[in-house]
């Protein structure tokens, strides 16, 4: 009887070890948005966190309107960085560790036009925005529904379309602690509100997320020194 019990314990131990090993050795696919601050700051930080855990990751650029559906469908395993308001409604997505940065939802404006809160709340305008940014703004500012939103799901292109004078306004998300992207330097900006942004993964990776959270915390603390 004792031999049977010991055998069962050993079997479960081996199975548990194999399962854990399989999870950590599987190549993950993590998306990111083509955005200067993500490419220059967030992506290298998250790459470093996974490398520290010896986890093999493919990082793939995906348009913003697809990335959440891709994670929910388990075609990808997570995203490099998302503002809390973007991923909070989706229960399959979980935040990993502390926020990577504080972000601002900003109204971008060309020269010579009003650039303040009243733009989105009073007089109707045509505003460039990604699907998710538009959803967040409409939730935060219900009266902004009177505006016409032109949806473009390549966040990095929004400032350039304003510079080309094809549009006067756009909603943009930028870090309040990382350098301002060069494309924004010649545009007027009005901060609509601030939030925090996190690395996110599908909830099935909750155990793995705990390990990555520790690495992210270490990296952020070292960057402050």
Structure, explained:
The protein is of the alpha/beta class and 225 residues long. The protein has eight helices and eight strands; from the N terminus they run H-E-H-E-H-E-H-E-H-E-H-E-H-E-E-H. Strands 2-1-3-8-4-7-5-6 form an eight-stranded mixed beta sheet. Helix 2 links the parallel strand 1 (28-32) and strand 2. Helix 2 (36-52) packs across helix 8 (206-224). The relative contact order is 0.20. Mean pLDDT is 87; it is low at 4-24.
Write the layout of secondary structure elements.
Layout: H1 2-25, E1 28-32, H2 36-52, E2 57-61, H3 64-72, E3 78-83, H4 84-87, E4 93-109, H5 118-121, E5 126-129, H6 131-140, E6 148-151, H7 158-163, E7 169-175, E8 188-202, H8 206-224
Parallel strand pairs: 1-2, 1-3, 5-6, 5-7
Antiparallel strand pairs: 3-8, 4-7, 4-8
Mean model confidence by pLDDT = 87
Instruction: Return residue spans where pLDDT drops below 50 for at least 5 consecutive residues.
Output: 4-24
Straight-line distance between termini: 58 Å
Taking the sheet with the most strands, its summary is: 8 strands, mixed
Radius of gyration of CA atoms, rounded to a whole number:
21 Å
Strand order of the largest sheet: 2-1-3-8-4-7-5-6
Order of helices and strands: HEHEHEHEHEHEHEEH
Indicate the percent of residues in helices: 40-55%
Structural class: alpha/beta
- How many strand elements? 8
